[in-house]
């Protein structure tokens, strides 16, 4: 039996990121328990050899490591509080969701209350990197259990950046990174929309940028999606609205002026109000 096969990981949240994360953990030999508020999403993993449970408490019972990949801080707090009877002191909790600076402090306090070893570890990457185990993990937390957490991160990502021993440092970094991703998304969407509005083929914008200093894999992927009118979700407008609000709120607390971020949030909100919530955030183009 490999070392991984002796470790049980409970994955709470099996959406666009959580489901491939659970599959990749199983592929690397870990025993994986799964729970999701929409039970069908967890049960869809049974065919991959993953055990699905009807409640967070059942999923956590007997787990050595907890991994949360739910939508937001309140959802995670609710799930962990519901599972309180199954929480054992010393269990490692890897918190992968983007929750913002207030919720990460709440979750850290919850972990301390139950004697859990807490790691603030949001991930950089969307559906495809998650499927390919190419996520970048931004991890913060105590030194003593990092050796136990690292093989888990290695199973789902291509790189782990240990940011700090201080809880919350990773969540702060993630907000700055998300702000950049949103700026790229809106800049591209508006540039293509402007070209079209001016009577120019938007594909020519892509043609000029390709191979130059402004080019990137992200630019090419989102541009291709927009030009093909293919908004298959890697990161939804709904989640973009949630995370953009976290950015704006954090900036206000830090007294940092973020004009572009505020405008970007409004653009995502318009896309949401127009009925594009389940589409990829490249649907900023449709706002």
UniProtKB/TrEMBL annotation:
Q: Tell me which Gene3D superfamilies the record gives.
A: N-(1-d-carboxylethyl)-l-norvaline Dehydrogenase, domain 2, NAD(P)-binding Rossmann-like Domain
Q: Does the keyword Chaperone apply?
A: no
Q: Which residues form the 3-hydroxyisobutyrate dehydrogenase-like NAD-binding domain?
A: 168-284
The transmembrane residues are none
Keywords, A to Z, come to: NAD, Oxidoreductase
Domain of life of the native organism? Bacteria
Residues folding into a coiled coil are none
Instruction: Report whether Oxidoreductase shows up as a keyword of the record.
Output: yes
Q: PANTHER family under this entry?
A: CYTOKINE-LIKE NUCLEAR FACTOR N-PAC, OXIDOREDUCTASE GLYR1-RELATED
The protein depicted here goes by the name NAD(P)-dependent oxidoreductase
Organism for this UniProt entry: Cupriavidus basilensis
């Amino acid at each position: 039996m490999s070392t991984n096969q002796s470790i049980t990981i409970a994955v709470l949240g099996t959406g666009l990121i959580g489901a491939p994360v659970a599959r990749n953990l199983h592929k690397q030999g870990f025993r994986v328990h799964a729970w999701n508020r929409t039970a069908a999403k967890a049960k869809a993993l049974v065919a991959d050899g993953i055990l699905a449970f009807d409640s967070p408490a059942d999923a956590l019972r007997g787990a050595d490591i907890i991994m949360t990949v739910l939508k937001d801080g309140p959802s995670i707090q609710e799930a962990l509080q519901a599972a309180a009877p199954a929480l054992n002191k010393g269990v490692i909790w890897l918190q992968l969701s983007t929750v913002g600076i207030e919720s990460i402090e709440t979750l850290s306090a919850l972990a301390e209350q139950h004697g859990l070893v807490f790691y603030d570890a949001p991930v950089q990457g969307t559906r495809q990197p998650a499927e390919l185990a190419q996520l970048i993990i931004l991890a913060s937390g105590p030194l003593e259990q990092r050796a136990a957490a690292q093989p888990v991160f290695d199973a789902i990502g291509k790189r782990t950046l240990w940011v700090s021993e201080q809880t919350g440092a990773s969540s702060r970094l993630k907000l700055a990174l998300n702000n950049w991703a949103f700026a790229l998304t809106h800049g591209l969407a508006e540039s293509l929309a402007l070209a079209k509005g001016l009577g120019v083929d938007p594909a020519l914008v892509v043609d000029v940028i390709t191979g130059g200093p402004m080019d990137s894999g992200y630019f090419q992927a989102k541009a291709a999606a927009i030009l093909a009118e293919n908004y298959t979700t890697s990161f939804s407008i709904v989640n973009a609205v949630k995370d953009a609000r976290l950015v704006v709120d954090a900036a206000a607390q830090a007294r940092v002026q973020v004009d572009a971020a505020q405008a970007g949030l409004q653009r995502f909100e318009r896309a949401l109000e127009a009925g594009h919530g389940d589409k990829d955030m490249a649907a900023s183009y449709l706002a």
